[in-house]
Amino acid sequence: MTTAAVATGQAMPAPAERWTLPDARDLEAINRLVSAPLLESGSWTWRAWWIGFGVSSALTAVMAVSVLWLFLKGIGIWGVNSTIVWGFAIANYVWWIGIGNAGTLISSMLLLMRQKWRASTNRFAEAMTLFAATIAGIFPILHLGRPLYFYWLMPYPNTMTVWPQWRSALIWDFWAILSYILFSIIFWYVGLIPDLATIRDRAKTPLKRTIYGALALGWRGSARHWRAYEILHLTLACLGVPLVVSLHSVVGMDFAASLMPGWQETIFPPYFVVGAMYSGFAMVVCLAALVRWGFRMQALITINHFEVMAKIMLAAAIIMGLSYATEWFMAWYGGELADRNFVVFEFTGAYWPMFAGLLLGNVVVPQAFWLRAVRRNVVLVFIIAVAINIGMWLERILIIWNTLSHDYLPSAWRLFFPTIWDWALLIGSLGLFALMFLIFVRLVPIVSMHEVRRLVAEEAGS
Amino acid sequence: MSTTTRGRHQPSRETRSSSFALDRRAALKLFTSGAALALASCGRPAEEIVPYVELPERLVPGIPLRFATALSLAGYARGVIVTSMEGRPIKIDGNPRHPASLGSTDIFAEASVLSLYDPDRSKAVRKSTYILAWSAFEAALLTQLELEKSRQGAGLAILTSRVTSPTLLGQINALQKAMPQALWYRADPVDDDAEITGTVQAFGRRLTAVPRFTDTRVALLLDADPIGPGPKQIRFARDVTGARQSHAAEDFLRIYAVEPSWTLTGALADHRLPLRQDLIRNVALAVARELGLTVPDASLPDSALNFARAAAADLKSRPGRAMVLAGPRQAADVHALCHVINAQLHAPIDFIEPIDPMAAAHMDSLRALASDIHSTRTQTIIILDANPAYEAPDELGLGELISSVPFSAHLGLYEDETAARCTWHLPLSHPLESWSDLRAYDGTAGIVQPLIRPLYDTRTTHDLLALLGGTLTTTPHDLVRATWQSHAAAGDFTAWWRQTLQDGVIAASAAAKVATPPAKMPQIAPAEGTSNFTLTLALDPSIFDGRMANNAWLQECPKPFTKQVWGNALHVSPADAKRLGLVDGDLVTLKTAHAAIDAPVVVIDGQADGAISGTLGYGRTHVGGIGNGVGVDFYRMRSAGAPWAIDNVELTRVGDNQNILRTQHFFDLAGEAKDLQPRVTLADLAKGHALFASVDANPATLYPPHNYDTYKWAMAIDTSACIGCNACVVACQAENNVPVVGPQEIAVGRDMHWLRIDDYVIDGRPGFSPVPCMHCEHAPCEPVCPVAASVHDSEGLNVQVYNRCVGTRFCESNCPYKVRRFNFFGYADGEEYGDLGADILKAVFNPNVTVRGRGVMEKCTYCIQRISAARRDAEKENRSIRDGEVITACQAACPTRAISFGDLNNSDAHVNALRHQPHSYALLGHLGTRPRTTYLARVSNPNPDLTS
Q1: pLDDT in tens, A137-186
Q2: Nearest chain B CA: its distance from A104 CA (Å)
Q3: Measured between alpha carbons, how far is residue B80 from residues B74, B504, B751 in Å?
Q4: Which of B729, B752, B753, B813 is most worth mutating to test chain A (most A CB atoms within 10 A of its CB)?
Q5: Would you call A332 helix, strand, or coil by DSSP?
Q6: B740: closest CA of chain A, how far (Å)
Q7: Radius of gyration of chain A (CA)
Q8: Using CB atoms and an 8 Å cut-off, which of residues 411-440 of chain B contact chain A?
Q9: pTM for the full model?
Q10: Residue A435 Ramachandran class (φ > 0 left, ψ -120 to 50 alpha, else beta)
Q11: Tens-place pLDDT, residues B564-611
């Protein structure tokens, strides 16, 4: 961007002006703003944090108990039955992995697209990715009838001389999750290194200096370092985009590579990618609002961020609506009785209120983002983002329930009724996520200082 | 083993340390270790024992032995062959030589092996709350007998259920000779009083009618269910479906059924008219009138009148090949009228002397007993394997009366409702532990031989009667031999005995046909129309009369029409339900002048308006942990005058709703069923071309074809022959160690049956198709398993490797037939329902089939263990497996031979021929799964006069 752009009009202000407030337009101010929670924790009350920590610890304990009970008693404690053999575990998995998508997307795809506003959100979005993907990765294991043998999905030399069955979408899924989690860790850490060095340099106690120093891997900010960093970061970003698309395509193929009405659809892989991005963005919006409020980061996370993210969600909502419509059309156009009945069941069957909730949350409510006033109202954007996340969760569970409740043989049709343990694990996983995030904000700079500095510096230098 | 070892050593240590003063803890330990020793019997005895150097004759470890015996249902025998594995009976099959089995079984026979090992069985003599030795009872009885002998048995009463055992009858006779004043009462809940009285009215003598369905081409069944549950089910089902195999209309048995509620026969019928039970006599009268008999005029609704006219015309057109049958719920005069009609039609019905020799009607016998106890004539009552406190109508008050008898003893398998009223309870041996003999419905006698020594200190009815006769030494074995001594050719009894035991059937022992005098028209009045509810009762399709209510296999066996398990319900027609505002599960109070019960409602299409129905056998209070408190006891609605059909029942809604536990019918159909369970008529078949897509269609696939160069197993199921009796379901459960999950798990939808019977209602008519695994050639379950636990074998079997399964359940998700079953809990492995995990029940497992643990998927294997056994035999003889050599458990059980199994690579295989019938179809074949299990569509032969 050039100063000319600033001069030519209000509509398109210079990036630094658009994405930061005047309080955060010099490099030291940025450093101070971001590192304050880590280095000057005494100047904060942390009351909200402690409340959050307490609640999320309690919920994590709920998750721990439900996992323990699960291991002791078996998956019979859930509402799964002979017909609907999958339930919350798979829905939670797909939902969490969807949320785990946005960080990488913001970091890599927006980086490659040179969307500079990503600088103030990408750090916690990446952290969110990491935590969500980790939690997502737990569910397929918990979901197993014999979780202790989950490693049989890995190709390792064994006395049985058996390898995994490569035609199974679950094996593809296993690799997709594994590589995605590994990638997310590396990408997140690489992006952190310059900031860890900043914290090291600003740390006031020897302990912090030592720990952050060790984690900063000897970063000195030399030109060579920056060059190596830029190459690695960009390369990882290039790897990340196809990875994130493939991950969600594979998750979609868990369903699409089957024979079931409502699953066996070629639209599933792209539709899952969009859905994942959609729910991930909604979660980023929620976290951004909380981080902005909790750490007084109004200068770094501006109302313009919310507006642009609302636009992306609006676009995604439209794509989701089109995907749903395509499914319905194809079910009719394809002519298969089971598919047609399936769509009728979606609208009129036992789960119709949830299906209505899904359409409301994913397609109808986000249409409010057409209004600029809504896009620029943090509270409204937050509420709609929560609605989207609920809608996306309903979509995940209904993909399973509708298809398995109403497939080919009416004699086997039945309904799913969740048990207290189904809910405990879902709510517990939210608690674990919150707990990890709360710990993260105390240990790591929540906004990428060096990227915001660069945004501001490029402005100043140009 | 470890328990028993500890058991042997511990007591000595305990006694030493406590100086013979036993505290409570030590006493309990002693007791339990002693009990464990006695039960498990696998501890090495204290005395020196010597292992056998040569195996005992016949006993090869791992090779099962098979013995012929007979099991009783309502007193009548069904011959069975029991497989015994190292001394443990584990599976019951039919005895092909036996006329009431023909090699097939019913669910009750299949399940009786589980009852043998039932931990709730009565195990010891009990007086009040004390457990005593048999000798204590013997002493008490002998004293009492002295008293009775002194008055020639004037105070002695013996109550039995139906007795067909020649040996037992002989013993009772002998006892009555010794004590002429002693009285024998006989009452079975499955009475045939109306039928017998009907023959008395028509022919002037007690007779039993035996219809020859194989010779029949038109049958009108008035509230009759010959192929329903009962001792004749297997035979009649075989005969009826056999007569419906032909594709020529003139050679195909056409059935007209008139009934108030669904029966298996009604489901099979070509035409069925739902009609109130009381109006059915008017149908009989209308038919009689159409056939030219002089009978009173009877009014009927138009539809029923048309039905009766069409049926009568059809009956008339097939003289000698047509029959009219009335069911046991119809009054004697209707039976008599049917005899008159049948005489006119020259119906293919034989008559024999009743197999049950007692002349008194069952209800009369109970009435007599009640009045004799009331008048204190009865001082000593011995109840042999009967349960009047539960089964008898309340108005007789037999429960209280029995407890007022000074000396009462009850011999039974369980400490049941009657045992609780008796001074003494005596444990009865299970039929698989007993020597006896039994007659089938047609009089054919068979020897009951024990497969195993009594598990507990139990005795047989023969033992007890011998004791009553004052002998303590005769064994039932000797008694049975003595009965048949005269039967054998002179001098060669030993050989005859051996041969008879081998066959399980006594040659030429069937009752001789009796020539009947001309049938006499009874005095019969038509029924007046009423608008009150009539409650009809029937034997339960799952637990029959309630004796086997503690059998978990039976409790979890889905009823044919409602698919209800673990309970029964009151069936109500949709119109009546609408009028009363009832939905499934609503509790209602049924009230008559003498009784009132609460029951949940099931609304069922095809129930006659104004007719409500229930099944007997539930609501037991003293049978055991499995059966106690399950379902509604409809016996309480019975009165001595109206045991089967109770008029003027008031129905009021209670307001509560109770979940009906069922395994199907959760959704209304949307037209799918016509493709899933197609129905065709003989006219369709006559077109001569294939009616459905070829079962050999080979849709495109990306995967390379399989190379089946050895065997190619396949199953063909003829849905025309499937009557929905569930024998295959329970047989599969017995053969494959399929666990019972219990009502709580059923409520969440986790039934484990490997084989289910799909019931679809099309145009108001149910139909049955057994659904085992389809063993698809392009199996959707195989490519989705991440660990290759679901794999295809070289013979086309779709096999599940339990050890490899990690439980992703993707296979079941992707199975369009939903035939896979998952162990959500350790249903057979530590988390059993009720007491089903008791050690003793491990004896029932088939050692050739893995008992599955928690967290693994399982499913039908086509009885792979039986294929392996046949393969071993064939390889020993260096040949390939012959057609018919592998018989799956479901196939063996099926009374109608609806299931065929064989090798498609063998061009002569029966299954090959069936697959290429014009009405052969593959379930969901259009999905490209190429199922190996295929079906023949249900064929009917409707009367054009009634369809147009």
Answers
A1: 999 999 999 999 999 999 999 888 889 999 999 999 999 999 999 999 99
A2: 27
A3: 16, 8, 28
A4: B813
A5: helix
A6: 14
A7: 23
A8: none
A9: 0.91
A10: alpha
A11: 999 999 999 999 999 999 999 999 999 998 899 999 999 999 999 999
